[in-house]
Amino acid sequence: MAVNKQDQVIMKGMLFHSHVGVLDFEKEDGQTFEIDVIFYSERLAACESDDLAQTIDYGKAYKIISQIMASARYDLIERLAGAIAEALLCAFSLACAVELTVRKPQAPIKGRFSFMGVRIYRERS
Fold it and tell me: Would you tell me how many other CB atoms lie within 10 Å of the CB of residue 43?
């Protein structure tokens, strides 16, 4: 499916505490993750109508992401990203696709870095 990337709803820099990781202390103590989401949509009617029902409600999206982050117990951030993307596409029929970035600033790696992360893109099938 060719996606028209003309209209986007963007959610950047959301911070959540979660227990995702391979190591025991990551699972037990958790850590902060940063999430970015871009919803891709065909022409959003809300641009003319000013009607929340005709766009992607980022308040509702934030709540979905927050709930997933609170309960997630995955080993990999790739799985976390996939779960969030799937839930968002199920919740928002106006979204043709979603791009999701998960950043892990405190990844348990010796060295200096800003973050380790993953970015995925999923289209509605």
Answer: 10
CB burial class (10 A; 0-12, 13-18, 19+) of residue 15? Answer: exposed
Asked if the structure places residue 44 within a domain, the reply is yes
Rounded CA separation 106/26 (Å) = 10
Domain that holds residue 66: 7-123
Structure confidence by residue, pLDDT tens digits, 87-119: 999 999 999 999 999 999 999 999 999 999 999
Give me the active site residues, please: 104
pLDDT, one tens digit per residue, over 7-65 is 999 999 999 999 999 999 999 999 999 999 999 998 999 999 999 999 999 999 999 99
The CATH number of the domain holding residue 107 is 3.30.1130.10
Give the total number of structural domains in the chain.
1
Assigned domain for 2 exists: no
Is the distance from CB of 75 to CB of 22 less than 8 angstroms? yes
Q: Which two tokens stand for residue 104?
A: 């892990």
